[in-house]
Amino acid sequence: MDSFLVSNRPMTAKDWAIDAAAAAASFLFGCVQLMLTASSIVIPDLALRQYLGMVNVVPDASVFVALALTTAPLIVRRRCPWPVFLFCFVAFLGFQDAFSGFSLTIVGPAVALYTIANERGRSEAVVGAAVAVAGLLFVDAPSRTASLAFFTRFQNIAFVAAAAFAGYAYRAHRAYVQATEERASEAERTREEEAARRVEEERVRIAREVHDITAHSLSAVSIQAAAAERLIDRDPVAAKEAVATVRATARSALDDIRSMIGVLRHGDEAETAPAAGTDRLDDLVSYLRGAGVEASLDARSYDSSRVPAHVDMALFGIAREAATNIVRHAGARTATLRLALEDGQARLVVEDDGRGGAPVPASDSATAVARAGGGHGIAGMAERVHLLGGAFSAGPKAGGGFRVVASIPVRGTEA
Length: 415
Fold this sequence. Notes:
Blueprint: H1 13-37, H2 46-52, H3 61-71, H4 81-94, H5 107-120, H6 122-138, H7 146-231, H8 236-266, H9 281-290, E1 294-301, H10 309-330, E2 334-342, E3 345-352, E4 360-363, H11 366-387, E5 391-396, E6 402-409
Parallel strand pairs: 1-2
Antiparallel strand pairs: 2-3, 3-6, 4-5, 5-6
C-alpha cells in the first residue's frame, strides 16, 4: 500500500528514463527563461527594465545551482511525489529573492504537482494546489516593483492550477481508456463464451436429432425385418409388404440425415425438407401398430395453427422418442397418445401398459432426469421441454405401465 512519503508504484527502466528526461527538460526550460529575463530580448527599453528591477547581466553559477535544486528531484517524482513536490516548492520560495534581477521558474514545483494529481488522485491534487497557492500568496515576498510582483504571482498561480488540473485530467483519461479496454476485453470474452455455448448447444441438438432419427427408424426397420423373416415362407405377400416398409423407413431416415448434413455443410443455403411436426403423429401410431402395439391418438383439443412451429416440432420429437422407447423397452400391448391445447399450454401425454421403469420425478432439468436413471432418451425429452420453459415428467403410472407428460407454454418460448 502506498504511503505519504514513498509510492509502491512499479517503475521500469523506461519510466526512470522518462522522469530523468522530464527533470532535464524542466532545468533547460528554466535556463532559457533565466537568459531571456536577464537580457534585453524581452524588454529592450533600458529605462523600463531599470524601473522593473531587471538587470542586463548573465546569471552566475549559483543561479543555475538554485534552479537545479528545484528541478533535479523530479527524477524520483513518481516514486516520492509528495517529498519531491514539497522540496522543489520550498526551494523555489527560498530562492525567489536570493538573486537580484533574476526570477526562478516554477516549472519544477508545477511538474511535481502534476505528478501528485496524476498519480494520487483528485483529493491530494486539491491539497497540493492549495499549498502551492498559499505559499505563493503569503510566503513569496517580492523585492521588486508591485506591478511585476503581481504579474509574477498571477503567472505562477496560473501555472500550478493548470498543472494540477492537467494531471487530474490525464488520470481521468487514463482511467477511462483502461475501463474501455476492459469492457472491450470482457465483451470479446463474452462473445467467445457465447459462441462456445452456441456450438455446444448445436452439438447437443444435432446429437439429439440423430438419436431420434436413428432410434425410431432402426426400431421400425428391425420390427418389419423380423416380421418379413417370419412371414417369408407362409405369407410371401405380407413379407413383401414388410420389406417395402423397411425400404421406405430406411429411405426416410436417410433423407432426414442427408438434410441435416446439408445444413452442416452449407448453412442456411442448404435445401432441407420441412421439419416434422404433430401432423405426423399418425405415422407414429402406424409405427406402434406395426410393432404389435394397439395404439390410439386423441388430438381433438389441439390446434396446430395456434402453436408456434418450434413448440409443435418439439412435441413431435418428444412423442417420437416416447414411441421408440415403448417399442424397444416397454413390451407394451397398448399405448395412448393425447395432445391438447389448454390454459395457454400445449400438453402431450404418452401412456402405455408395459413394464414401466424407475420413477423419474417431474423436473425441468435434463441432468436431474438423467441422474434418476432415465437414460439419454428421457434426458433429451426433458431438455427439449426445459429449453422452451415447460414442465416434464416421466415415470410409472398407477396400475402399471409408464407415462410421459410434457407441457410447453405457447407464448414466450421464442428465445
